Amino acid sequence: MLDLSLVSALYHTAREITHKTPQIGGTLAGNCTTVHFGMLDTARQIFGAPVQLSIGSITLDGTTYYDFTEEELLSWRSGHTRPRYGLHAWLSLPHLGNEVIDLTLAATLNHAKPGWVPAAITFITARIATRLNLEYHARLVGDGVLEELNLVRGRQA
């Protein structure tokens, strides 16, 4: 079972780092790839277990958001860049049945439409997603997916 106090600690760490990083706008909203990629190692330390980066789309109240086509995937893989990408990123915990940890979606949705997600919800887990009528659809999973899509340069060893 997912320990929400650990998820909360991860969320607060991400929020603090984001607020101190003006290069990404100082906000979690709209920064799913940067935040989740950046928090991978911290999440692994906090949970003491494997954590994976997942890329895909979401369905909220029957409407799909951040969906992308195979043609877009091929374009990104071949190096074509865009200012914004129509995809979503979150963390998954395979040892808990691919449990979702999403540190950015609540802020992103409330930025797009205030009140869309109750203000008390700051991060999203699979259980919270069910309450919100929200589904996650992973298309790519692993540490290297952002590099594969040319969305980030390789990590320094």
Give the tags.
157 residues; alpha+beta; six-stranded antiparallel beta sheet; 7 helices; 36% helix; globular
Count of the domains: 1
SS-based structural class? alpha+beta
Low-confidence stretches: none
Largest sheet: 6 strands, antiparallel
Name the shape in a single word. Answer: globular
Average of pLDDT: 91
Helix content: 25-40%
- Strand proportion, as a percent range, falls in 15-25%
Q: Count of helices?
A: 7
Radius of gyration using CA atoms only = 15 Å
Structure explained in plain terms:
With 157 residues, this protein is of the alpha+beta class. It has one domain (4-148). It is 36% helix and 20% strand. The protein has seven helices and six strands, in the order αααββαββαβαβα. Strands 1, 2, 3, 4, 5 and 6 form a six-stranded antiparallel beta sheet that branches. A hairpin with a 5-residue loop joins strand 3 (88-93) and strand 4. The model has no long low-confidence stretch (mean pLDDT 91).
Explain the layout of strands and helices.
Blueprint: H1 4-19, H2 32-38, H3 40-47, E1 52-60, E2 63-65, H4 70-77, E3 88-93, E4 99-102, H5 105-112, E5 124-125, H6 126-131, E6 134-141, H7 145-148
